[in-house]
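Weekly modeling sync, notes
Attendees: S.R. (lead), two postdocs, one rotation student

Agenda item 3: backlog of single-chain predictions. S.R. asked that every request posted to the team notebook include the full sequence so nobody has to chase files. The rotation student volunteered to paste the first one in as an example of the format we agreed on. Action items at the bottom.

Example entry:
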Amino acid sequence: MPELQKRKDGDGSAGLPTSSPLIPSPQQRKHWAKQYRTEIAASSSSILSTFAAYPLDSVKTRMQAYVSKDRLTESLVPDADVE
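Predicted structure, as returned to the notebook:
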């Protein structure tokens, strides 16, 4: 059983284990981030670009699919003077 560490700052977290397989230490987190920095950067940029581009792409698609009454009438009724 891991030792319990008493915190002196009174933030209500007294009694938390000092080491746990689910909660890595700051040194372990730093090592992990350094080891996988390329993957972290690629994933972060992918998520941010998706959140930025998706609304714009939705607007573009709606604009392309929009058909006004005038355009619909022109496409259904052929011109009389075209022979």
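Discussion: group reviewed the output briefly. The chain has a mean pLDDT of 77.
Action items: rotation student to repeat for the remaining queue; S.R. to check formatting next week.
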